[in-house]
Specification:
The complex is a heterodimer. Chain A is mainly alpha-helical. Chain A starts with a helix and ends in a 26-residue tail after the last helix. Chain A has ten helices and no strands. Chain A is elongated, with a radius of gyration of 22 Å. By secondary structure, chain B is mainly alpha-helical. Classes of the chains: A mainly alpha, B mainly alpha. At the A-B interface, helix 4, helix 7, helix 8, helix 9 and helix 10 of A face helix 3, helix 4, helix 5, helix 7 and helix 8 of B.
Chain lengths: ~260, ~220
């Protein structure tokens, strides 16, 4: 099976034309970026606002609960309802993109919201004490402090979109999933495996690139690391006093809630 | 609703297959994550590497993993084993960090008391640390269960039968009733998994629910 896979990659026909690897990869990346930009334009300001004002928390809670809806079902439902109502080419493209935007919103929203929510109240009070107005507190203190969680939301959303765009090829969206659809239809396992390999690679590279961007953008003092917090703090305080926070929310590393169901 | 009532048997049969494909990996993943998470929690040097490596597994899209599994396992392409193996990896990816975090939540004085009572490393982990870590581990398991139920439905695209089959079939034949039944059945199953974990976690930690207790 592995030699078949290598053979598929070695075949020049695999790389050429509008259904070659570069073209399909380009489509996949384009869809992902467009969807993320649209979703972020809605979700990040909304998340920051909800976190800043504390109003409308139910929106975050309900979008999180909606994540139990299988992404495959959402995609098919949007396509089935919207597809016949749209003309021509748009009927194939738009329902998939709408479903992908809907799927990207929850991780982005809860990332931005929980980022602001997790800001140390003392930092917020200090900013107000220095005479900052509400909008200044949000932009100069809360936004930078929320970046680690905002980024983890963005990474979740990106993986969700890359994975679901593959599935969307089954309802005639282009992208790398087309290799899977064609391979499955023609019983061509090397083509399927090749497509799957490229999708996995794209997901890993995209996540790696965002992780790298995060390192440069998030201020050093705000980075979350994987060292257990209790232990670090325990060294500085008298023995036993760190048990007060045991099992509290501080011990576990903050997460932008659940990861995506890809 | 009419579609659902007319095809009760079929839905039930697919729900059973779905329960198997999502549930078995949940148990296997937890059993693997317990020792790995324990090792990671004990060693500050090992921890970042182990957590990052298992987390990386979750980055791979499900459809790609299902298709690539035969290359790794040497199985047939449509073998449901591929789905079970892939889902086990996802569960493991989510739970290793949860187990380590759960063990972090055990207070140091409790650990010290267990050492003083003569517990060895392994028996202390099993009899003292693990029971106290149940609330955190159960929270992670709930996330894994819901995401497993959702991800398994993708396997219908490569022809492995479970509730996702209703989604694919409902879309292909433009049967809204079947599609909606599939979505609701997935949600229902996720809810049942969630309830079972909550109840089991509650039974395993009776001290948390003693009247007037501190937690």
């Amino acid at each position: 099976m592995i030699s078949g896979l290598l053979g598929w990659f070695a075949d020049p026909a695999t790389w050429a034309g509008p259904s070659g690897i570069p073209a399909r990869l380009g489509e996949h990346i384009l869809y992902t970026v467009v969807v993320l930009v649209i979703a972020a334009a809605f979700a990040i300001p909304a998340g920051l606002f909800i976190g800043h004002t504390g109003r409308g928390k139910w929106i975050v809670t309900s979008t999180n609960a909606a994540r139990a809806v299988p992404s495959l079902g959402l995609l098919f439902a949007v396509a089935l309802w919207l597809g016949p109502r749209l003309p021509g080419e748009v009927a194939f493209l738009l329902p998939s993109l709408i479903a992908l935007v809907v799927l990207a919103i929850p991780p982005l929203l809860s990332g931005a919201y929980s980022g602001v929510e997790a800001v140390d109240p003392a930092a917020r009070d200090a900013a107000r004490g220095m005479g900052m107005r509400g909008s200044q507190v949000l932009l100069k203190v809360e936004l930078p402090c929320s970046l680690p969680l905002l980024f983890s939301g963005l990474r979740s959303a990106t993986l969700q979109v890359v994975a679901t765009a593959t599935i969307a090829s089954f309802i005639s969206l282009g992208g790398l999933g087309v290799f899977l659809v064609q391979g499955l239809a023609g019983g061509d396992y090397p083509q399927m495996a090749g497509g799957a390999f490229l999708v996995a690679l794209l997901a890993l590279v995209a996540d790696g690139a965002l992780a790298l961007a995060q390192r440069f953008i998030v201020p050093a003092g705000l980075r979350i690391d994987d060292r257990p917090r209790g232990r670090r703090r325990g060294r500085l305080t008298p023995s036993g006093s760190n048990t007060a926070s045991a099992a509290g929310p501080e011990v576990t590393r903050p997460q932008a809630t659940a990861p995506p169901a890809n | 609703m009419t579609w659902f009532l007319a095809h009760l048997d079929r839905v039930f049969e697919l729900a059973l297959a779905h329960t198997y494909l999502a549930g078995v990996p949940l148990v296997l993943g937890l059993l693997l994550a317990l020792p790995i998470g324990w090792l990671a929690q004990r060693s500050p040097r090992l921890r970042p590497t182990v957590v990052a490596a298992t987390g990386l597994l979750y980055t791979i899209p499900s459809l790609a993993l299902f298709v690539l599994m035969p290359l790794i396992l040497g199985t047939r392409i449509l073998d449901p084993i591929n789905v079970v193996a892939a889902m086990t990896l996802y569960t493991l990816a989510l739970l290793v960090r949860t187990v380590a975090d759960g063990l972090d939540s055990v207070p140091d004085h409790v650990r010290a008391a267990a050492v003083a009572m003569g517990y060895g490393r392994v028996s202390r982990a099993i009899k003292v640390e693990l029971p106290l870590a149940v609330p955190v581990i159960a929270a992670g398991l709930r996330v894994a269960a819901v995401s497993n139920v959702s991800i398994v439905s993708v396997a219908s695209l490569i022809g492995v039968a479970q509730l996702g089959t209703l989604l694919t079939d409902g879309y292909n034949r433009a049967l809204t009733g079947e599609l909606v039944t599939g979505i609701l059945a997935c949600l229902g199953l996720a809810l049942i998994f969630d309830l079972i974990i909550v109840v089991v976690a509650r039974l395993l930690t009776p001290w948390r629910y003693v009247q007037g207790g501190s937690r």
